[in-house]
Design a protein that fits this description.
8-stranded mixed barrel; Glyco_hydro_25; alpha/beta; hydrolase; two-stranded antiparallel sheet; 300 residues; TIM Barrel; Glyco_hydro_fam25_subgr; single chain
């Protein structure tokens, strides 16, 4: 590190011009035209006024601030709103529904089912658990077999879902789900999770989704549940044929469901904190009574 006094001395010497005893003369051979041209060039250069730089800086900051709010704050603003109702599992709960549940996959890691069962006696008891079983044509969730057995063992109404891949043959996906999931009396109907269109056209996606639904319904003898966000459904699955299936709507950080059609399940948040599960988990409600939920399950 340079001592302060030395730093000042060096600065002083650098700023001070050297003294000369002779007068510098302009070389006779040096042309005068370039000097004139340089003078003209300098005269054409314009310096942006300070007030204009300030306005541009303010505009840039405003644009970036608006973009940050729109993409990173606005979608989650509901998290910081004062809870008008009651809090449960770390979030503001929809209090108009009596039947609550969760959906899980390998992302939730190892689950303490004994501790999870204690939530049945809480203010918002958990009655049903959906579990990811399969994805695409050959990817199974490693935690599904164990969790599916534990859910039945500890008295939860259980369900299984398949994550749909638009690029994979729908019959292959349906057969993979059927081989993986053995539903029995008291289980919820199979669920098709559709969240992406990939490179398919909306027309092709509708055909593929309907193919999966038909194949699975023929095997289990019950109409599958269709899971997707209300925006995705309105944009890509806006055919009346899909309104005949029980609908599980994904709609986060809102006070109520904005979808105008009928629905059965509402996934209202993905940041729930449930005793027995270390990771954040999706929370759901059923649009009906516990008896209505049991009536929706497989009866044979």
């Amino acid at each position: 590190m340079v001592p302060p006094f030395l730093f000042l001395l060096l600065s002083f010497m650098a700023d001070k011009k050297p003294r000369t005893t002779t007068t510098r003369r302009k070389p006779a051979s040096r042309p005068t035209a370039p000097v004139a041209r340089r003078g003209k060039k300098k005269s054409k250069e314009r310096i942006m006024p300070a007030w204009l730089r300030t306005i541009l800086a303010v505009c840039i900051i405003a644009v970036f601030s608006a973009g940050f709010y729109w993409f990173f704050i606005r979608p989650y603003a509901y998290r910081w709103k004062p809870c008008a109702g009651q809090k449960g599992y770390g979030v503001c709960m929809p209090c108009d529904y009596e039947v609550h549940g969760i959906d899980i996959s390998h992302y939730q890691g190892s689950i303490d089912w004994v501790q999870l069962t204690s939530n049945k006696a809480s203010k918002f008891p958990i009655h049903f658990v959906f579990m990811k079983a399969t994805e695409g044509g050959d990817h199974g969730d490693d935690t599904f077999p164990f969790n599916f057995d534990q859910a039945r063992r500890y008295g939860f109404i259980r369900g299984a879902y398949h994550f749909f891949s638009p690029k994979t043959d729908p019959n292959k996906q349906a057969d993979f789900f059927i081989r993986t999931v053995q539903l029995t009396t008291g289980d919820l109907p199979p669920v098709l999770d559709v969240e992406t269109i990939g490179k398919s056209t909306p027309h092709d996606l509708k055909i593929a989704v309907k193919t999966w639904l038909d194949r699975v319904e023929a095997h289990y003898g019950v109409k599958p549940i269709l899971y997707t966000s209300y925006k995705f459904k309105s944009r890509f699955l806006n055919d009346s044929v899909f309104n005949t299936y029980p609908y599980w709507i994904a709609h986060y950080y809102v006070d109520s469901v904005k979808y105008e059609g009928p629905w059965h399940f509402w996934q209202h948040t993905d940041v729930g904190n449930v005793p027995g599960i270390k990771e954040e988990v999706d929370l759901n409600v059923f649009n009906g009574t516990l008896e209505d939920l049991r009536a929706l399950t497989l009866q044979k």
